Amino acid sequence: MRLSLLNVAGPFAVLIGRMRRDKMALFGATVVTGLFFVAIFAPVLAPYDPLLIDLNYRLAPPEQGHPFGFDWVGRDVLSRVIYGGRLALIAALASVSIGVFIGTPLGLFSGYIGGKLDTVIMRATDSLLSFPYLLLVILIVALLGPSFENAILAIGIWSIPNYIRLVRASTLSIKEREFIDAAKATGESFLSIIFRHVFPGCASVLLVQSTIYLGRAIEMSAALSFLGLGAQPPTPEWGAMVGLGRIYLQVSPHVVIFPCIAIFIAIMGFNALGDALRDALDPRLRGLFRG
Q: How far is residue 118's CA from residue 126's CA, in Å, rounded to a whole number?
C-alpha cells in the first residue's frame, strides 16, 4: 500500500460539506478567498493612490468617497488598508514557505534516519523553541536590521523548528507501517521511500498547520511593523498604520480602528479555515459529518 497526495481529495469533499453546515468554516473560506482577491486586484480595488498626500484633509473623518477617512498626512485609509492586505498576504505566504521548504526535509530525515542526525537536528530545534517566539523574531530582525524583507525572514526562521517537530512526529509514525517495509523489500532507495511514501503521509498535517500559521504570520508581521521593525513608512502595512496612528487614537480613531479590524478578520479567517481543514482531514472525525 502506498500513500498518495490524492488521499486528501476525499477529505476535501468532507470539508465542502462541513462548510455548508459550519458558519465558522464558511467564514474562514470566505475571508481567505477575499484576502487573495484583494491582494491580486489591489490596484483596481483601491480608489486612490495609497501614498498620495493631501494635507488639506489631514485626519478628516469618513465621508462620501472616503468611507475610512484620512490619516495624519491626508492619505486615504481605505486604499492603504487594501494595499496592506497585499503586504500581509505576501508576508504570510513567504514566511510560511520558508518554514515548509526548510523544516519539512529536516523533519523527514530526522524522523526516518534517526541516530546522531536526529539528535543534532532535535537539539538545535529545542534550542530555538526555548526562546519566546516573539522575542526570537525581534532578536533576528534587530540583528538583520528593520525592514519588511527581514521581518519575513525572521518569521520564517521562527516557523522552521515547528515544522521540523511536526513532520518528524508524523514520519516516526508512518515509517513503522507495512507499506514502508514492502517498499524496502522491493529495493527502493531511502530517498525514494521518504519522498514517495513518507512525505505524502505528512501532507494533510502540513496543510492544516500551514493554514493556521498563515494567520500567525500575519499577526507577527503586523506586530513587528507596529514596533518599527517591519515595513517602514510610508509603506501601507497594517501594523505600521496602527503603530504610527495610535497617537491620534483619541482625536481620530478611524486611522487605527480600520487596520485593526483588517488584522483581526484576516487572522480569524485563517484560524477558522485551519480548524475546518483539521476536522475534515482527521479520519477520526470524518464520521461526524456523514449524511
A: 12
Burial class (CB in 10 A: 0-12, 13-18, 19+), 289: middle
pTM more than 0.85:
yes
Q: What contacts 214, CB < 8 A, 6 or more positions away? A: 92, 93, 96, 270
- Burial class of residue 123 (count of CB atoms within 10 Å of its CB; 0-12, 13-18, 19+): exposed
pLDDT digit string, tens, across residues 183-218? 888 888 888 888 888 888 888 889 889 999 999 999
Residue 196's alpha-carbon distances to 91, 100, 177, in angstroms, are 30, 17, 14
Which residues lie closer than 8 Å to 283 by C-beta, 6 or more apart? none
Amino acid at 32: V
Cβ neighbours of 42 (radius 10 Å) = 19
The total of other beta-carbon atoms located within 10 Å of residue 169's CB is 14
Residue recorded with cell 515509517: 175
Given a contact cutoff of 8 angstroms between Cβ atoms, the answer to whether 75 and 83 are in contact is no
Size of the chain, expressed as the number of residues it contains? 291
DSSP 57: G
Q: At what angle do helices 199-226 and 148-174 cross, to 10 degrees?
A: 150
CATH, range 5-49+66-289:
1.10.3720.10
